Amino acid sequence: MSEGRPARGRRGADGPRRVLVTGASRGIGRAIAFALADDGFDVSVHCRADEDAARETAEGVSARGRRAKRLRFDVADREAATRALAEDLAADGPYYGVVCNAGVRADAAFPALTGLAWDRVLRTNLDGFFHVLHPLVMPMVRAHRGGRIVAISSLAALAGNRGQVNYAASKAGLIGAVKSLAQELARRDITVNCVAPGLIETEMLEGAALEELLKRIPMQRLGRPEEVAGVVAFLFSERASYMTGQVLSVNGGML
To answer: Could you report the per-residue pLDDT of 55-71, keeping only the tens digit for each?
Structure first.
């Protein structure tokens, strides 16, 4: 599903560079899609279920003069992800970059944490990294154009958080995966990095006790999705071409 007219986009040796942003229908993912479009990339907007929100993101990409494409599948479903991405690659060729942003939470104190909640979070946040990237990495390598991979981790992966044993475990796993994959792809000029947001103004914080949260943040405010997106955009830029295997935390001084 494409939106708007094809645009030239940021060009590599063989034409426009396109990037995939998972979980791009709202929040941090949407801000990342817009930031990369502003920097001249064509963007594939992924969602799991909310096609209306994904369409709004795609329209925002198109309004920035970039080509937008919508993809819908569950990153936790290996077969669905493999099938959707194979069709996408056959239609439009390899990606220059991927942002693994799709994620879920299912918070509970550890004694009350269910197996279902553990599995749902790990399969989406950590297994989804494999399900999305495994079909895409070798086409990126064969294209001989370099590339960028960014995984969205979390401050919880670095510092832990009460009630988030499953979430912190999944996001910490991403850091280990990124550091290892960075070493495998470095000679291919494909960088692999993590961005670890702290407390950001998104739907995931709805219902939280804001006053208590602010006490934990030295800057005394929540972060904005655009501030996370700006770091991702930097990692996609030529200025970050010698950075790989790194974790950049956007947290207002919490760590």
So the answer is: 999 999 999 999 999 99
Beta bridge partners of 233: none
**Catalytic machinery residues:** 167
pTM above 0.85, yes or no: yes
126-154 confidence digits (pLDDT tens): 999 999 999 999 999 999 999 999 999 99
Token look-up 């494909």 returns 190
Most distant CA pair in the chain, distance: 54
Contact 150, 100 (CB under 8 A): yes
Judge whether 132 and 22 are in contact, CB under 8 Å. Answer: yes
Task: Give the Cα separation of 57 and 86 in Å (integer).
Answer: 23
**Contacts of residue 215, Cβ cutoff 8 Å, sequence gap at least 6:** none
What pLDDT digit, counting tens, does each position of 150-192 carry? 999 999 999 999 999 999 999 999 999 999 999 999 999 999 9
Rg (CA), the chain: 17
91 touches 103 (CB < 8 A): no
